[in-house]
Amino acid sequence: MPAHQPVGTSTTKATPARGKRAPKDAGQQETAPAAEVFAVDQVNASFLESLLGYNARRASLSLVGVFVKCMEGFDLKIVEFSLLSLVGGNPGITSRQLCQQLDVLPPNMVGMIEVMTRRGFLERRPHPRDGRAMGLYLTEAGRALVDQAEPQLKASESAAVSHLSVEEQQQLLNLLQKLYR
Amino acid sequence: MPAHQPVGTSTTKATPARGKRAPKDAGQQETAPAAEVFAVDQVNASFLESLLGYNARRASLSLVGVFVKCMEGFDLKIVEFSLLSLVGGNPGITSRQLCQQLDVLPPNMVGMIEVMTRRGFLERRPHPRDGRAMGLYLTEAGRALVDQAEPQLKASESAAVSHLSVEEQQQLLNLLQKLYR
DNA sequence: TATTGTTATACTCTATAACTATA
DNA sequence: TATAGTTATAGAGTATAACAATA
Q1: What segment(s) does the record annotate as region Disordered (chains A, B) (predicted)?
Q2: Min Cα–Cα distance to chain B from A152, Å
């Protein structure tokens, strides 16, 4: 699942010196010298790999991939699961509140809510204090889905990061939150 | 910069008990009782926030945002900078190799290379050993751009994570790489 | 037969403008 | 006047199929 962002791996350097290029032709009437050509065997991505942002993105994509695969079993996109999970934890939440939490624009939220409603996971009731808004609630099927999907997601993540110690996992969580909070 | 993935913040819980919902109507001919309605003040995203993947994504988005802003000064998208940086470090790299590194499909790479070429940052020369392929090289303007952009990116990231100690930054880098490598 | 680069094209995701009903 | 939800639509990003040239 790509996303307008680099994903590299290699580290070995087997290419010509960085920035090396054919010398500029000085004379005006001379025949241009044939430009040098190289073949790259091992791609060197050392600069990108030195960036925290690059590594954070790759790690994120890796875990998101695990989530995507896990949610395929429920025929849910990640954003759809997130929506249901939030409604599950916040009965009566409004469309706007979901938009803010999920960083989805209101026009794009409409369809998602409609799909989840048509699939029988969501229902809408009037908001107790705001006549413009609608509160969202899980149906029984929605609650069952969330109650099944959440622990499964948690388990698939645990399996994916099991090569890190519990201390490392906690450390990573703390550092990540320190980064964006 | 959204992206099919949740972005939440709140932690406080000021909503009804999780999963609470109106009792099911038992009788068949009875009038259905009015469903309970709630208002959510503080959104509770505690489950999502417990996931490493969620936190990794939020941290990643935060840093990518810094990169995007930084590269706007060069009128470059992140993927375009990454492309130029890779060509800079790998003179003669092919389109296919870039596709693999950047996780971009070949048909979608064509336009990027064309744009960077038209803007005078890239040039294409025949591949020394493969008549089907073309090697990519930075022009002088391209080299100048990369040599200016790379340290600027590095600096903007450093500023963005300056509230972490150098040890924490190194620790985070190691843990992130452990996660996806 | 397989691969590189390419075209055309479809599909998904994201963004903007504008409308209505209510606050 | 501002905001919640909505419609329509534009734009960017991502995906598949197929082709010519070369391996």
Answers
A1: 1-31
A2: 12
User: What's the maximum distance between 2 C-alpha atoms anywhere in chain A?
Assistant: 83
Share of chain A above pLDDT 70, in %: 81
Backbone angles phi, psi at A135, to 5 degrees: -90, 145
- A11 within 8 A of A46, measured Cβ to Cβ: yes
pLDDT tens across B143-181, in order? 999 999 999 999 999 999 999 999 999 999 999 999 999
Task: Using the Cα atoms of residue B173, residue B175, residue B176 and residue B177 in order, give the sign of their dihedral.
Answer: positive
Structure tokens given for B45 = 């995203």
Q: How far apart are CA A140 and CA B19, in angstroms?
A: 9
Confidence of residue A30 (pLDDT cuts 50, 70, 90): low
pLDDT value at residue B90: 98
Q: What does chain B come to in residues? A: 181
A131 CB and strand D closer than 7 A:
no
Domains belonging to chain A, first-starting first, are: 1-14+37-72 (no CATH), 73-153 (1.10.10.10)
Can you give the pLDDT at residue A33?
67
* Alpha-helix runs per DSSP H in chain A: 46-49, 52-72, 78-89, 95-102, 106-118, 140-160, 166-180
Pure H helices in chain B = 46-49, 52-72, 78-89, 95-102, 106-118, 140-160, 166-180
List phi, psi (to 5°) of A49.
Answer: -70, -15
- CA distance linking residue B6 with residue A2, whole number of Å: 17
Q: How far is A60 from chain B (nearest CA, A)?
A: 5
Residue of chain A minimizing CA distance to B17: A89
Q: Nearest nt (C1') to A103 (CA)?
A: C14
Instruction: List bases, strand C, within 7 Å of protein CB.
Output: 3-9, 13-18, 21-23
- What whole-number distance in Å separates Cα of residue B138 and Cα of residue B117? 9
Contact B2 A86 (CB under 8 A): no
pLDDT digits (tens, 9 = 90+) for B61-84: 999 999 999 999 999 999 999 999
